[in-house]
Design brief:
heterodimer, A: 113 residues, mainly beta, Immunoglobulin-like, four-stranded mixed β-sheet, B: 418 residues, Porin, 16-stranded antiparallel β-barrel
Chain lengths: 113, 418
């Protein structure tokens, strides 16, 4: 009986592993687009965005999740954002740092299924 | 270890007969209890920290987190463009021109209702009744965001045509002046009042479709094509709206492909003729390693061009010789020559342009060869900082006419975005 219990306790994290899998999304921001602009993940996934800019500073803002970071300019490195996709739904993201004439069209969506 | 245990557990459950009854039942009960406890733990954690529904681990410099429905004003941004142009082979002196002083600002009423604007002062000085600079409201619109694939926009907007019209910040293109094709075939900056829809269709495709104020045929000319036909939102007459749209593919990193159109009647100020203008354009940008490429093709057609010429001749006394078709294309290659580790950047470029504002004439009219032009623009853009560009180019503009010698121009420019 003890052996079975030990197995169960160890097995629980193993059962959770598929739900907690990490997905790395390499994203490029440039006037006036995020590439990719649509990202789909399963509920429970830990999404790690690694975002670089091809030109100026951009913002990466997910209003529903309270995330708002600045993406460094071209050649100045990347920003890393970790998002735990716990609630299914659509999480729109947008540029939050004015970047040019088409700033407001720089948008995308993260879909948690 | 845990996985081994999981495998072992799975193995146990595969053979129900051998481990039947009380043990299995007990294990199931325990599993159910543990799951319930986990759910309760998650619920308690989220109740304790409601302001962080999805924790973010961020490097570097996170900005202050804002509530989801915050109303906030964007800080003022802008760009400036300062030029020196000198024609060679002519006695004309060089010209120093603060070409553009542009301020952009916006306001987020909610996460779904946003205002954006662009106010531009061209050529530094504006004075009434004289040909001086211009003060232009190029953008002032409201966005109503509904779904990624369906959003609404209304106000003063940029026509979504061509590479430059919507992406014209000085550090984002090479050359002191904008491409000729984006000046006379696609009359950028092309803006006017209107309303429409836009969105992201998924798989890298995005679209825009607007109804906008039409062009005014009385402004068309042989040399500058459609350029002076823009109404620019100055009490624009909208007897019949024009329709414009763009489909863009940007699903792959560093590749962008687009096609756009414009279609509308333009003779609202004329009694005898109401020509239809159709503009079709496609373009692409591609970067690989340290090389950048871009190209564009645009064609504009004017229906009833013969009747339009006669109508304008009756009005002004001069036949404007407007073509029934105009066409232009260009190709640009650029290489970033400094190593990536350098904090500065230097792009060396060459652009070939071919544009003809009298590509096809109405019957009874002959095309004038001076309007069939090619241009070689070569130079460099130095970026001491990604948002600051110091530009130099040498432009050779040739026509097919023997009467007009080729024009060589030296251009220097500073452009910046903030």
């Amino acid at each position: 009986m003890r052996i079975v219990l030990v197995m169960l306790v160890c097995a629980l994290p193993a059962q959770e592993t598929p739900a907690q899998q990490t997905k790395v999304v390499r994203m490029i921001a440039e006037r006036f687009v995020f590439v990719p602009s649509q990202v789909k993940v399963k509920k429970g996934t830990v999404v790690e965005f690694r975002i670089t800019s091809e030109d100026t500073n951009h913002g990466f803002h997910i209003p529903r999740a309270g995330i708002n970071v600045i993406i460094p300019k071209r050649g100045r490195g990347e920003v890393k954002v970790v998002f735990r996709a716990e609630e299914p739904g659509e999480y729109a993201f947008e540029c939050s740092k004015a970047c040019g004439a088409g700033h407001t069209q720089m948008r995308g969506v993260l879909v948690v299924e | 270890m845990c996985r081994l245990a999981a495998v072992a557990l799975t193995a146990i459950s595969v053979f129900p007969q051998e481990t039947q009854d009380p043990r299995d039942k007990r294990i199931e009960e325990l599993e159910t209890r543990v799951r319930m406890l986990e759910e309760r733990l998650r619920a308690l954690e989220s109740a304790r920290a409601p302001e962080k529904p999805a924790p973010a681990a961020v490097t570097p410099a996170p900005v202050a987190v804002e509530p989801a429905v915050a109303e906030y004003r964007s800080p003022i941004s802008g760009y400036m463009d300062f030029h020196y142009n000198k024609d060679r082979g002519e006695q004309s002196p060089g010209r120093l021109d603060f070409h553009r002083f542009v301020l952009l600002f916006g306001h987020n009423f909610t996460d779904r209702i946003k205002f954006w604007s662009e106010l531009e002062l061209e050529h530094a000085f504006v004075e009434g009744r004289e040909e001086k600079g211009e003060l232009e409201l190029e953008q002032a619109y409201l966005d109503f965001l509904v779904k990624p694939w369906l959003n609404f926009r209304g106000g003063m907007m940029l026509a979504p045509v061509g590479l430059i019209n919507e992406r014209h910040e000085p550090p984002s293109f090479n050359g002191v002046e904008r491409p000729f094709v984006d000046t006379v075939i696609v009359p950028s900056t092309w803006f006017d009042g209107g309303a429409g829809v836009f969105g992201d269709l998924g798989k890298g495709f995005a679209y825009k479709f607007y109804a906008m104020a039409p062009l005014d045929a009385t402004g068309f000319s042989a040399e500058e094509g459609l350029r002076e036909g823009r109404q620019k939102g100055f009490q624009s007459i909208t007897e019949r709206p024009a329709f414009t749209g763009r489909l863009e593919f940007r699903g792959l990193p560093r590749l962008s492909l687009g096609a756009s159109f414009w279609r509308g009647r333009t003779g609202f100020d004329l009694l005898t003729v109401n020509p239809r203008v159709r503009v079709f354009e496609f373009d692409g940008r591609f970067s690989h390693w340290r090389l950048d490429f871009r190209g564009q093709f645009a064609r504009a057609g004017v229906s009833d061009a013969g009747a339009l010429n006669l109508a304008l001749q009756r009005r002004t006394g001069v036949n404007p010789n407007i073509a029934r078709a105009m066409r232009g294309f260009y190709w640009e290659s650029a290489a970033r020559v400094l190593p990536r580790r350098f904090p500065h950047d230097l792009a060396v470029f060459w652009r070939y342009e071919n544009f003809d504002t009298q590509y096809r004439m109405p019957s009874g009219y002959l095309p004038l060869p001076q309007f069939d032009r090619t241009a070689h623009v070569m130079g460099f853009t130095y970026y001491p900082e990604p948002d600051v560009s110091l530009k130099f180019d040498y432009t050779i503009l040739r026509t097919r006419s023997a009467l007009f010698p080729s024009l060589h121009t030296v251009n220097l420019g500073m452009g910046w975005w903030f």
